[in-house]
Amino acid sequence: MFRDPVMVVESGHTYDRNEITQHFAHNNTDPKTNLPLRSTRVVTNWGVRDAVQEWLDRHPDVTPDGWDSRELLPAQVEAPVQTAEPGHGDALVLQMWRDMCPELQAIWEVDRPVDQWQGVTMVDGRVVRLDLSRKSLSQVVPACIGRLTALQALNLDSNQLTNLPAEMGQLTSLRELSLGGNKLTSVPAEIGQLTSLAELDLNSNQLTSLPPEILQLTSLMGLDLRGNQLTSLPAEIGQLTSLTWLSLIGNRLASFPAEIGQLASLEQLDLGDNQLTSVPAEIGQLTSLKELYLDRNQLTSLPAEIGQLTLLNELDLGGNQLTSLPAVIGQLTSLEKLPLYANKLTRVPAEIGQLTSLEQLNLDNNQLTSLPAEIGQLTSLWVLYLRGNQLTSLPAEIGQLRALEHLFLGYNQLTSVPAEIGQLTSLEELNLEEHRLRTLPAAIGELAVRGCVVVLMKADERVG
After folding, report:
1. Of 19, 250, 326, 409, which is least surrounded by CB within 10 A?
2. What pLDDT shows up at residue 28?
3. Is residue 405 part of a domain?
4. C-alpha dihedral (434, 439, 444, 446), degrees to nearest 10
5. How many CB atoms lie within 10 A of CB 44?
């Protein structure tokens, strides 16, 4: 274990200062490669030094072999490396990181220029993008990363990182930070200093609460927190007024604060797969919202204010416990997709007929016994799912859905279908699995003649 780790500037290899000094007294080569060196200049490898100190802190009762005490030797003050190469300091940081990390040694070839290393993008000698995703990194990110002050995008997705150095707060040019798919339980407080940050990805970690420092990032436009273990959100989330998208899918949220209504720029909000039982009325203040995902929660009702979200083109309410929809649903005239599958709906309000932009409507697995005649006003609809309900009949107005291409009616209690179904001239698929039709209506035969695939009883029993 190095007690005074230094890096040979020219080769990027790290040695103990005392040993390499003795080597250079008689040789002008790098011990690992045996290649001649133009310069034997060495500098302290702060990354390795920090790693050694961390190991010592974790093992307070162990003195490394060959050491007379547990202390690292004092680091020597060194003059800056003089070189004509712009951004040599950035290259030096990456060389230090490589030397302490076996995973990087496998992909960064020491005999290649740093700007040709995998995942490294340099401009005028400065590192501006660094993509180290999916590299199985498990060791501590070195503190020297804080010297990459020109870095604009850092991707550490899908590794095995458990913590991050405070020095990341020095990356004040950073606009994109991707830390998803690691094992982080917290982030350093200094992350709040990244005031240029526009996108922050912390998905699929082990966060149990929203780090308060994130609430200082008022330039943040995208925040991905899906797949963590969050049980609540602080009211201060309303301070992130630049947010245009926020993903919280797959957490343990039972509620979210009314202050979320302050996120006036929000266009996409994903709260799917949580434990929500209600939605605050303030949701209606999110008038820029275009996509709202509330699927797979425990909602029993919706606030009337949801009708104020007139720019919504997708509203996912599938997998809840809704027994009815508010009439204001008809005000969402921009809506194109409306999944309502796996709820407890017993009726659909007539106002649904006002959704003339609707293209996809999924009402599978509810408790519907009938449909309103206004369903025929959905003239943009091309797919309609009605499987697994208790429908005994269909309104004749269903024949007005001239854009409809796919109609799923299986697993209901239909004993007849209206003749007007034959007017669905765009229909390509009609699913009537497990039907109870007494006779096969002529209209269905006509559809089959026109090339529509008709599924009766079983998936492999087709007419047409």
Report:
1. 19
2. 86
3. yes
4. 150
5. 19
Share of the chain above pLDDT 70, in %: 95
Report the sign of the C-alpha dihedral through residues 234, 285, 201, 180, in that order. positive
CA distance 70 to 54: 12
Distances (CA, A) of 274 to 29, 291, 306: 60, 17, 19
Residue 24 in contact with residue 40, Cβ under 8 Å? Answer: yes
Q: How many CA atoms lie within 13 A of 112 on its CB side?
A: 13
- State yes or no: pLDDT of 83 exceeds 60: no
The answer to whether the beta carbons of residues 273 and 252 sit under 8 Å apart is no
pLDDT average, residue stretch 8-20: 83
The H or E element spanning position 146 is none
Identify whether 451 is part of a domain. Answer: yes
Q: Would you say residue 446 lies in a domain? A: yes
Residue 285 pLDDT greater than 70, yes or no: yes
- Per DSSP (E only), the strands in 159-313 are 176-178, 199-201, 222-224, 245-247, 268-270, 291-293
**Burial of 34 (C-beta count, 10 Å sphere; 0-12/13-18/19+):** exposed
The number of C-alpha atoms within 13 Å of 286 and in the hemisphere containing its C-beta is 27
Query: Does residue 398 have a pLDDT over 70?
Result: yes
- Cβ(394)–Cβ(416) below 8 Å: no
Residues whose CB is less than 8 angstroms from the CB of residue 268 and which lie 6 or more positions away in sequence, other chains included? 244, 245, 246, 247, 289, 290, 291, 292
Q: Which two tokens stand for residue 146?
A: 């804080």
Q: How far is CA 107 from the centre of its chain?
A: 26
Q: What is the CATH number of the domain that holds 445?
A: 3.80.10.10
Number of domains in the chain: 1
Residue 211 domain flag: no
Burial 201-211 (b: 16+ CB within 10 A, else e): bbbbbebeebb
pLDDT in tens, 419-463: 999 999 999 999 998 878 877 788 888 899 899 999 886 434 444
Look at 86 and 115; give whichever has higher pLDDT. Answer: 115
